Amino acid sequence: MKPGFVAIPSEDAVRFWRGGVDAYGRLPEHAISDGGGVPCRHCLKMVQAGDAYLILAYRPFAGVNPYTETGPIFLHASRCQRAVMQEELPEILDSERYLLRGYSGAERIIEGTGGVVARSEISGRAAYLLGNPNVAFVDVRSAANNCFQCRIVRLDQVSERIT
């Protein structure tokens, strides 16, 4: 089972670029990158030093249930090209460890799928989880701060949305 890394949908990013509110009904905050640790969830690249970016609360789920987590993400302040679904680890995944968690099609955590893995083990662990027919997708979150990074799906599941 080959995993594909998927960015947030362009329709979500465009909403924020046009002044839309985040998951908490607030306008995104504006900041300037110092060049360290500012991963854009739309292009899946780092925001370079001196470039403007947005900080906002994001919920990467279509519905709402007890498992639909919300957390902070970064997004280039200006339009960027959405990352194409890829097999390779995105540029933004440059930390040592990440939390991976499998979800059902009903967006509920599948018990026993969550765990912190080394960066080098992300693809293998994701492939293992996606081999479970009950797992519809895997979310990648920061092991340190629990921030949503990107979604992993089976490569044969091509979709514009991450949900």
Q: Can you tell me about this structure?
A:
The chain has helices at about 10-15, 120-130; strands at about 5, 30, 50-60, 70-75, 95-105, 115-120, 135-140, 150-155. The strands form 2 sheets. A 5-stranded antiparallel sheet has the order 1-8-7-5-6. Strands 2-3-4 form a 3-stranded antiparallel sheet, with no helix packed on it. The chain folds into 2 domains: about 10-75, first zn-finger domain of poly(adp-ribose) polymerase-1, CATH 3.30.1740; about 85-155, Dna Ligase, domain 1, CATH 3.30.1490. About 10% of the residues lie in helices and about 30% in strands. It is globular. The chain is mainly beta and about 160 residues long. It contains 2 helices and 8 strands, in the order βαβββββαββ. The chain starts with a strand and ends in a 9-residue tail after the last strand.
